[in-house]
Amino acid sequence: MIASSFRDCQAWRAEGLHLSTSSNEACKLYDAILNQYVKWRSDETMGGFEGCISAIKAADPNFVMGHVISTGLELVGTGSSTRLNERLASDVRRTVELANSQDITPREKLHVKAMELFSHGNFPKACNVWEDILVDHPTDILALKFAHDGYFYMGAQTPMRDSVARVLPYWKPHIPLSSYLKGMYSFGLLETRFYDQAEKVAMEGLALTPDDAWAVHAVAHVYDMTAEVDKGLKFMEGREKDWQVSDVLASHNYWHWALYFIEKGQYEAALQVFDSQVGLRCKATGSMLDTVDACSMLYRLEMEGVSVKNRWKELLQVTLPHTDDHVTLFNDLHFLMVALGAKETGTSQRLLEGLQELAKEPADNQQHQLAGALGVPMCQAMMEYNQGNYSRSVELLYPLRYRMVGVGGSDAQRDIFSQLLIHAAMKSENTHHQKLGRCLLVEREAVRPNSALTDRLMQRTLALHD
Predict the structure, then answer these.
(1) Beta carbons within 8 Å of 279's beta carbon, 6+ residues apart
(2) Is the pTM of this model over 0.90?
(3) Domains delineated in the chain
């Protein structure tokens, strides 16, 4: 039997979030899966996500919200495409059929609709439907979390912040998981540059729930964006015991820790974090979040002139099976880093051509609609840089710099593309590009004062061209 603390049919009804099933076990398992999703942590006492998902299907095979949460989680993981994965596509169809054949609540119908839209890559409409749910049911944390993820994949920073702000007043301290909204709200605040407020809100969350890994992660972002590296290192180290138990997010938090080392120019320390945590976890889980972190870390180190040796080849084993997925542009750009790093020209070409093909007839897929104007030229810029065609790389990247937010991810994650543009400009033969590189560094210094990385690059560019 599942822990009594999880909510049964009656408890969900009392919260105004009725679930259409007569199985108390199914309701509790739904709560158990929800808890793991919000806490970024597999509860091994219940067999983790997988165990709970199998159990919920056994408890009530026709429980619509059981299907919504299990299939929805696989979709927002972005590790598989319904275009290529027939099993996943059929899970989506089955959920829709179940919903149409039963008398379920309007809220549950909207959940099914949002999941189906998301499965087609229509992220904006899916988020609109989740927001519709939240207007009437502001404490539906599944709608809130799915919307949060959807906005993240679109780089929709302001909606991500406001989505949480709108529901906060309805969340009373006695409602399960209420403290976790602090970390979510903090993340939206920092992505819209309210760094002081973001830090304050995240710390309030951590005072209530010290092991909230997402709130820890928000603070890690603040120290990264403000280049307060020593503060960041001290913070991550001091709370490591609290956040490393959140297995779903632990690798990402270690990645943030390593970024501080890269910022300081302590490359050996960064590689040690890669080898002992980020790279290892990525190979173990294959999760997209862990994978893109591993890709970007090696790419950052290489841009800084560090040899990462055979690590690209090992990482290629993880990314290669996803070459044709094209679920998000963000993932594609990171898979390309590995193909280029491992000198797999055929794979790089296949990735680019696949994206070009999908850009021709994107249908409702928001990422494919963006591919032609954003994803493809960004991929091309990386390929040109890789071949030493730095001026061409600048010509492709520079016009896109204020639109790159559209590939999704966070400011900290997308900073890799800003760095790429600076490196390309510095290495370009074109003197106008070289001056541009300096301008970009001056601009970077204004936003992030006291950044050791910016200082290093400025010294390098002066040494190159004086």
Answers:
(1) 294, 311, 314, 315
(2) yes
(3) 1-153 (1.25.40), 179-244 (1.25.40)
